[in-house]
Known about the structure:
Blueprint (H helix, E strand, L loop, with lengths): L1 H30 L3 H17 L2 H9 L1 H34 L7 E2 L12 H4 L3 E3 L8 E6 L2 E6 L8 E6 L5 E2 L9 H10 L3 E2 L5 E6 L2 E9 L5 E7 L15 E2 L13 E5 L10 E8 L5 E10 L4 E14 L4 E5 L4 E5 L12 E5 L9 E2 L10
Parallel strand pairs: 1-6, 8-11
Antiparallel strand pairs: 2-3, 3-4, 4-5, 5-10, 7-8, 8-9, 9-10, 12-13, 12-19, 13-14, 14-15, 15-16, 16-17, 17-18, 18-19
Amino acid sequence: MREGKRKKKRPFVWMLWLMIFSVGIWGLTACSGKKEDEKPASAESKNASVTGDSGGEQETAQTSSETETVGESDRQQSDSGHDSVPETEEPDAAQQENPDAGNTVSIENYIVNGEWKKLKDVLNMQPTESGQFGETGEAFETGGFYITWTNDMTEDDGAFTMINSGNSSVNIYGVTVGDGIGTADSAFEENGWTALDDGRQYIAVLNGRNLAIDFDLDENQVITGWYLCNWPEGDFSENFEGLENQQINGVPAKVNVYEGEYRYDLARTGLPITEYYTVIVENVTEDSFDFTIYYVDDLAETRDVVFRTHTAVFEGDGTYAKYHGQEYELEFTFPDKRNTYPDAVDMQITGYEPVEGLTFCNNAIPGHEFS
């Protein structure tokens, strides 16, 4: 009986072994497929995943080798794409090695109000020694362009010297190394500079500072470099006598000056003050305003101009403004006596002796009205 039962089970066992063997052979055959067959499957699974096809998602999940193949292909594409990145970035790299490459920087935007200090970052300049100003100075250079400055001066902004030894990545009024001196002559004349007799030096008074530039020329009168400073001394400074000051390049104001009358504050208190100074402010912009100073006599009903209309330009940190004239240099500050900042209700002036030490106030500023 037991032998008969074993004989009945034997065919089932053989069939089971046959099935296992067949599955193994099928698995080996499936794993030995060619790469040509894998690529279409990978592309199909990738497209399916983009379109959101559920069958494609199953396909991708079923064959991890395809996702790895796609990953390898993507990595190769990424690598080839990465290889192309330096080609698009090469100009920047070249510009770092050669500052003459790319767009030029207009130096005239950095020659007043201490703006020259920004050039070290604009041009990515490297520190070097300051031969002119010693321990009180800072100096930077890049590819034939050198700048040094000091704050150890009586003026707030300090002094600077720029030397261009052949760097064409900087220009002044559009004039670059390699241009003829005639180009400089036209550009500087248009911008209010005065040419000296030698034909290669130009001077101007900008925001109350004397500036001079001296061009280096070759035998063909082509510019090979230049020297620019805002502190010419000695006999050379006599060339500036009679030149008109130009107010340029103010900085954005940090206080709000309002058009109207800034009157001597004690004249608004009810005290018996009938003679006083007052300031009329007009044409306020983001970086300047026009002012006129009057002397008022209420009893005589007169209002006389004692300081003609001029323009004050905001400088430095934007909290004060200056007027640089031939005889006077006025500075306007705005004390916050009434806690009205940034609205400038109060004003003080230095540089014109009759009004120094006085406070002027505007009582008609919206939100800060008073009698």
